[in-house]
Amino acid sequence: MAVLECKGLSKRYGHTQALDRVDLAVEPGRIVGLLGPNGSGKTTLIKLANGLLTPSEGEILVCGMKPGKESHALVSYLPERTSIPLWMTAGQLLDFYQDFYKDFRRDAAEEMLQHLDISPKQRIKQMSKGTREKVQLIVVMSRAAKLYLLDEPIGGVDPATRDYILSTIIGNYDPEAAVVISTHLISDVEKVLDDVIFINQGRVMLQSSVDQIREEKGMSVDELFREVFKC
Amino acid sequence: MKWQFSNDAPIYAQLIAQIKVGIVSGAFPPGERLPSVRDLATEAGVNPNTMQRALAELERDGLVYSQRTAGRFVTEDKRMIDAAKLGLAENHIKTFLLAMTRLGYQREEILDLLRQETTKEGITDGGSGM
User: Fold this and answer.
1) How far is A159 from chain B (nearest CA, A)?
2) B9 closest CB neighbour out of A29, A166, A214
């Protein structure tokens, strides 16, 4: 069964069509890149999957269910902006996540924090932007979820942090779960992805595997993206 | 091992080529156990399914074999490794010859240049490593 499925999914904000009859399915075990220029509908799609927005038309299903209380337990979400409480220490954040989510793997989170030399006693407020993003990704990836929705996980961090984030995603790979990564920094994530979904002006323009694109077009996904979305 | 990727070829094909180099050069010695798919994927910074596909293909070619519970191992068959080495060498030579032909060199000129260059550089057996 698909972990994430959209059928004729549309979302309008007033007169703005954010998503236009989107059909797609993400199978377990896949790491999928949701790629598109700014304002193409990536975040809207992710928010719909989280139940933060409701569809104007069509439907979106997470593990066969409409987004709601049951699906939240299966989805681990990294929002576009840092949303962890700044007054907490890293250790308190782990307590918080452990309280909230049955599937939280505390030992995995502690190990990752230790690996980055982040003390559980350090306050999130005192951390740099890059460190905050790492901590947030750590708690998100430490859940044994069925669907990880990562909205721009590598935007605005230095290349070393980017590498760390991507290797964390690879290191936590679970064949039963799917990962959806929205980004426009394609060349950085390309090697980590199974499949890519190109989205523009709310429409799915292309859904293919990375190696299929490279094989058929003789170019990287990044190059293809630049060609398709040439300004 | 250092992993590098170009834009013009599928990633699994590049992984196959680089693991072959690792086996031929002894970075993955004959009979030795390979790291797990997850560890190799993390090290190379690639998707685990893509790494799995590359290893499956190497297995089909016989360069690696799996033992049900113990993992994947490099073949102990020296002839097989030598054949892979020759295959890699032939690819390098083909690329080189194509580039030289494009520059307008004839076969004899290429061989002369090659001879000159190898004496100049003092390249001996096993002189320059990877």
Assistant:
1) 13
2) A214
